[in-house]
C-alpha cells in the first residue's frame, strides 16, 4: 500500500505540527529512531523534527551516522540487508516504516541526490523523463523536462544537448541533472548527501545557490562535512557526534546561526571551533 495522505490544507494542518519558528509545519519527524547494522547500533534515539521549506544541514565527524540518518528519511537503508530501524519516522503524520507503507512511494515523495553524480547512461532528456514515465506521467513530457531542468538551473546549458548522453556533461552539470531528475517526480522533500563534495568551488557555489532557490518549494536536508557550507546555506543545523561505543547521537539541533555562534552544548562548540573532529 502506498502512503495514504489527504493533501488538503485542512488535513495537513491537522496531521502536522508547527515548526520551531512558527512559520509552517514539520516536513518529517524522527521519534526515538535508532539504526542497527546487525548487532551494532549505528545511531541511537534520534528525536528530530525538520521544518518544511527550509534547508536543514546535518554535520558531525566521520562515522557519526549522518548519512545513515539521511537514508532513514526515505527508507534507503531498507536496501541494506543487515539494517534494522527502531522508533518512528513520521511523514505527514504517518510512520513511513509501517508495514502497509510502500517504500517506492516514499522514495518518490522524498527524493535523494547522492554524493557522486549518478546520471543514467541515457540522454539528458531521458534522465529527466525516466522517473516520471515509470510513475505513469501522462502530461506533456517535453514541458515537464524543460520545467525540471529550469528548476535545476540547467536548461540554458543543455537545451541544445537533450539528445546527447548525460555522461558527456561536466561534474557540476551532472549533479544538477540529478537534482532535476529528483525534482521531475515532484517530491516534497529532497535529501542530499554531500552533493558538492566532489565539485570545484565554482560548481559548488552553483549547487549552493540552487539549493537556496528551490528551498522555497521543497524541504531540503543536506549532509555536509563542510561547516562553512552548512553556515552559508542552511536555516537549521543538526550536530551529531559519537559516544564511547562509536554510536552516533544527536547532540544539538537548532537555528544555524545559534549553532555556529552560541551553541547550547560544549561538544557542539568544541566541534565548531575545531577542538575535535
Give a description of the structure:
It is a single chain. With 277 residues, the protein is of the alpha/beta class. The chain has a domain at 12-117 and 188-272: P-loop containing nucleotide triphosphate hydrolases (Rossmann fold, 3-Layer(aba) Sandwich). 34% of the residues lie in helices and 25% in strands. The chain contains eleven helices and ten strands. The strands form two sheets. It has a six-stranded mixed sheet with strand order 6-7-8-3-9-10, with helices on both faces. A hairpin with a 2-residue loop joins strand 4 (83-91) and strand 5. Helix 5 packs across helix 7 (171-184). The longest helix has 14 residues, at 171-184. It is globular, with a radius of gyration of 19 Å. 40% of the residues are buried. The model is unreliable at 1-23 (pLDDT under 50).
Amino acid at each position: 500500500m502506498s502512503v495514504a495522505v489527504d493533501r488538503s490544507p485542512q488535513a495537513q494542518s491537522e496531521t502536522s505540527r508547527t515548526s520551531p519558528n512558527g512559520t509552517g509545519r514539520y516536513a518529517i519527524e524522527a521519534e526515538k529512531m535508532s539504526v542497527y547494522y546487525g548487532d551494532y547500533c549505528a545511531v541511537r534515539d534520534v528525536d528530530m523534527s525538520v521544518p518544511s521549506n527550509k534547508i536543514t544541514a546535518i554535520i558531525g565527524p566521520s562515522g557519526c551516522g549522518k548519512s545513515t540518518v539521511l537514508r532513514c528519511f526515505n527508507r534507503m537503508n531498507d536496501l541494506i540487508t543487515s539494517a534494522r530501524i527502531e522508533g518512528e519516522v513520521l511523514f505527514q503524520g504517518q510512520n513511513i516504516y509501517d508495514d502497509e507503507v510502500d517504500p517506492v512511494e516514499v522514495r518518490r515523495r522524498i527524493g535523494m541526490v547522492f554524493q557522486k553524480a549518478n546520471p543514467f547512461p541515457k540522454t539528458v532528456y531521458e534522465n529527466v523523463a525516466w522517473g516520471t514515465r515509470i510513475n505513469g506521467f501522462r502530461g506533456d513530457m517535453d514541458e515537464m523536462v524543460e520545467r525540471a531542468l529550469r528548476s535545476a538551473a540547467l536548461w540554458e546549458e543543455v537545451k541544445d544537448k537533450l539528445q546527447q548522453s548525460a555522461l558527456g556533461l561536466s561534474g557540476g552539470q551532472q549533479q544538477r541533472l540529478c537534482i532535476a531528475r529528483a525534482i521531475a517526480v515532484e517530491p516534497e522533500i529532497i535529501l542530499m548527501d554531500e552533493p558538492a563534495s566532489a565539485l570545484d568551488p565554482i560548481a559548488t557555489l552553483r549547487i549552493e545557490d540552487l539549493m537556496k532557490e528551490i528551498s522555497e518549494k521543497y524541504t531540503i536536508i543536506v549532509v555536509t562535512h563542510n561547516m562553512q557550507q552548512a553556515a552559508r546555506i542552511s536555516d537549521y543545523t543538526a550536530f551529531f557526534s559519537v559516544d564511547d561505543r562509536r554510536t552516533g547521537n544527536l547532540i544539538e539541533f537548532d537555528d544555524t546561526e545559534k549553532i555556529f555562534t552560541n551553541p547550547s552544548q560544549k561538544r557542539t562548540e568544541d566541534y565548531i571551533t575545531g577542538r575535535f573532529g
